[in-house]
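Work Package 3 (structural annotation) set out to generate three-dimensional models for the target panel prioritized at the project kickoff. During this period the team completed the workflow that converts sequence records into discrete structure tokens, so that structures can be stored uniformly alongside our sequence database. As a representative example, we reproduce one entry of 304 residues exactly as it appears in the project archive.
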Amino acid sequence: MGNVPTAVKHCLSYEQLIQDYPWLKRWLLEEKTVSRHEYPEFVRIVEVGPRDGLQNEKEIVPTGVKIQLIDMLSGTGLRVIEATSFVSSKWVPQVAAGATEVAVFGSASETFSKKNINCSIDESMLRFEEVIKAAKERQIPVRGYVSCALGCPLEGHIEPSKVCEVAKRLYEMGCYEISLGDTIGVGTPGSMFKMLQSVMAEVPTSALAVHCHDTYGQALPNILTALQMGVCVVDSAVAGLGGCPYAQGSSGNVSTEDVLYMLHGVGIETGVNLAKVLDAGDFICEALGRETNSRVARARGRNL
């Protein structure tokens, strides 16, 4: 290149640049990776507060309070609100007349399954077959849940392959959607990525949802990771209600308010009115005599 200045030579030689600045290649790769992340245009929020949230309360919540909470949430634009739960499959025929959807709750942890629903994973699948069959006969869709997808309070680490196995079985039984739950909130974006990567190899991404607890403050980053991988359904609970009775220190579900704030902040549509959800959160927290677990609500001076 003769007397061409060094800076110009560097501009003309990628190889020389990489040799002179080893960090540059990594930086370019990171930039390329980040630029490829795309978020879904719309995310469906599944509100689990009235069911998963309130069922963990030590005191019985009056029916009138539950009904008013559900009524308030119904006015926010939420498309799906889980109202209650039943332990035994024998209840399916009795509730069929009014149910628009039912759910079955499995686990990726053998020990947790025995502790939570008093049967092994294989035994639970046999029970679920009865529920799903009864629901299908009445044309009621069934949603499947997989607990301990990112960790178990009794077994610790759960292999992604085990989560995949349970999710696949539920999907093949006829569950239209599988919600993968970080029951004790120990997951990180890294473990979420690995778990979803495994499950997505066997179950369509369009049939997956994530259900995150916020024990370690990782719920929102985990959800963001799931969205970047194509998941378009997120479970959450108003005011961050809920918890896990078998995991000491486990916090509630990620709050609907916080999820909405994040989603709207990156331009994702939800069809849900955040202000109205905040009002519902104020109501239930006052009724329960507790502070909200929503950071958004606290930042806006709600429920103080």
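The mean pLDDT is 86.
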